[in-house]
Specification:
The chain is mainly α. The chain is built from 13 helices and no strands. The longest helix is centred in the N-terminal third of the chain and has 24 residues.
Length: 278
């Protein structure tokens, strides 16, 4: 049961970001539930059948909840971690074929305007905008807001979906402002930060101060024993730096990313080297 719980926690952490707080989790779940109920009822009132109403409800849970989640600092930092480049962002964006689903659901409401044109315009705009944002990282915050606003204008010019009029107001803030750009957060908020004292630390000080010292008696041994590593792997004596093996094991135990633990080490070492070059 504990392994199942860790797997669920790890999967949720990958979705909302490993640094998400309880408040973030509560708002994410609450907004998804509101979107689920509201979109389903809206579709039914517009005359959609039960199947279409259910599909719109599930899609709204993803988009409404995702609009909040993808714009939190925890989630943006997760998306901007090491190993997440332009291709990963474009792949994530390309998987969001929601305009096609909405166009299909609208087929009985659109009259002479074919749903495929509406869907293709929204989807193409989103993918191209994601590529533009990722190609200009120095302007990501401005581009995220501007292109999200452009998506809303596009929706207005094409005509809002009768069955999902809320679509553009969640689709573009989630994917452009949040996932592609992280528009709400400056660069310094996307880096792993920690306190550096005046006294020089040994190389693994961040992990020691933020984790090991708090658990160096009983709890730390539990972590390493659960990973089938002898107690010497705890590194509580400050004799060596963090290793990829240590980072992977910590990430597995706490349901976070291995890059998070390695970044603590690399950021700290950079902090030590910079004063020497001034």
């Amino acid at each position: 049961m504990s392994e199942l719980f860790r797997s669920i926690k790890r999967a949720w952490g990958n979705f909302v970001g490993p640094e998400a707080t309880r408040v973030d989790n509560c708002i994410a779940i609450g907004s998804a539930v509101i979107g689920l109920i509201g979109a389903g009822l809206r579709a039914k009132r517009r005359g959609a059948n039960g199947k279409i109403a259910m599909i719109m409800a599930v899609m709204a849970a993803d988009l409404v909840g995702g609009t909040y989640v993808n714009n939190t600092r925890a989630c943006v930092r997760g998306y901007e971690r090491a190993g997440q480049g332009t291709m990963e962002h474009l792949t994530f964006a390309a998987l969001h074929v929601h305009p096609g689903v909405v166009g299909w659901a609208d087929r009985s409401f659109r009259g002479v305007r074919p749903g495929v044109v509406w869907a293709a315009a929204h989807y193409s705009y989103m993918v191209l905008s994601t590529a533009a944002i990722r190609s200009c990282p120095s302007q990501r915050r401005v581009l995220g807001v501007a292109l999200a606003a452009g998506g809303l204008c596009l929706d207005g010019s094409l005509g809002r979906s009768p069955v999902a009029p809320w679509f553009a107001w969640t689709y573009y803030p989630k994917l452009l402002m949040g996932h592609a750009a992280g528009s709400l957060w400056p660069n310094e908020n996307l880096q792993v930060r920690f306190r550096v004292d005046a006294q020089p630390y040994w190389r693994d000080a961040p992990l020691h101060d933020q984790l090991i010292r708090s658990f160096c008696s009983h709890a730390t041994q539990r972590i390493w024993h659960s990973q089938h590593v002898k107690g010497a792997g705890c590194n509580v004596r400050r004799k060596r730096g963090s290793t990829p093996d240590t980072a992977v094991r910590l990430a597995k135990y706490f349901g976070t990313f291995a890059e998070l633990w390695m970044n603590l080490q690399s950021q700290y070492e950079l902090r030590l080297e910079r004063p020497a070059l001034r």
